Amino acid sequence: MKHRIRPLKDEEKDLENSKQTSNECDCESCECEDCSCEHDEDTCECKKENCDCGHEDHKTCECGCEHEHKHEHCKHDNSKEEEYLNMARVIQADFDNFRKKSYEQILLARQEGEIEAIEAFLPALDSFNEAKKMITDEKVLQGVEMIEKKILEALKMLGVEKIEAEGKPFNHNLHNAILVTHDNSLDDDVVQAEYQAGYKFKDKVIRYSQVIVNKKEEK
Questions:
Q1: Region label for 156, one of left (φ > 0), alpha (ψ between -120 and 50) or beta (otherwise)
Q2: Is the distance from CB of 49 to CB of 68 less than 8 angstroms?
Q3: Sheet with 209-214: strands ordered across
Q4: How far is CA 127 from CA 119, 121, 166, in A?
Q5: Rounded to whole angstroms, how far apart are CA atoms 82 and 168?
Q6: Cα–Cα distances in Å, from 101 out to 10, 95, 104?
Q7: Deepest in the core among 33, 101, 164, 180, taking most CB within 10 A?
Q8: Are 165 and 191 in contact (CB under 8 A)?
Q9: How far apart are CA 62 and CA 69, in angstroms?
Q10: What pLDDT band is residue 59 in, cutting at 50, 70 and 90?
Q11: Helix boundaries (H) for 158-205
Q12: CB distance 47 to 25 below 8 Å
């Protein structure tokens, strides 16, 4: 016996139609608050705040800022960071220059103080030369010369050296001519005698030698 196909009722037809369209989401007309559609995110047009479909509009920007929009549309401004970085570099360079300049000024001030102290001893050294000319006792003279030598050695350790003058060619960078003699037996422009000794401190002249220079007479 053949069975007749019973016509579907209207309710059953509606249920069948709803099953066939269950995979199609109409997010624009959807009124739900917690949309959880799983269709292609590129075609999703759901704009709900609580949507967890994973649409790219709701992802956090990867640039590190807290903006919840696409990275290519991020308006995060790095110009201030570069400005502050350049400002820090300029300040660092200025500080380095200031430190170098301050160090040079300290060295210069120290050197000037040492020169002033040394210059205070030079008249005492000159007194040794005057005293030696007046001493007739040989033993006393040896004692004075020994003291003078010790003082000169101590000054040399501090960077002070006596300028060689007598018998040396005249050097305007080291000697100051106060008198000229004419002795044809001596070479021209040679220091014949030293009137006052000169001294250098670390290659800097702190007092020029006062000397007598020889000039041959023209025939």
A1: alpha
A2: no
A3: 175-181, 209-214, 190-196
A4: 14, 10, 19
A5: 65
A6: 98, 10, 5
A7: 164
A8: yes
A9: 9
A10: very low
A11: none
A12: no
- The answer for residues whose C-beta is within 8 angstroms of residue 180's C-beta and 6 or more apart is 212, 213, 214, 215
Question: Phi and psi of 113, rounded to 5°?
Answer: -65, -40
Q: Which residue has the tokens 């109409």?
A: 26
> What does the block give as tokens for 22?
């269950």
Task: Report which of 185, 193, 194, 190 is spatially closest to residue 170, judged by C-alpha positions.
Answer: 190
Distance in angstroms (rounded) separating the CA atoms of residues 157 and 28: 96
Q: Which two tokens stand for residue 148?
A: 């003078």
Average pLDDT value for the chain: 76
Sign of torsion over alpha carbons 22, 28, 32, 38? positive
* Tokens found for residue 20: 């066939």
d(C-alpha 170, C-alpha 189), whole Å: 6
Cβ(174)–Cβ(163) below 8 Å:
yes
Helices 138-157 & 79-134, crossing angle to 10 degrees?
180
Place of tokens 């917690």: 34
* Structural domains of the chain sorted by starting position, each given as residue range(s) with its CATH number in brackets: 162-219 (2.30.22.10)
Alpha-carbon Rg for the chain, nearest whole angstrom, is 51
Whole-model pTM over 0.90: no
State pLDDT tens for residues 5-19.
455 455 555 555 555
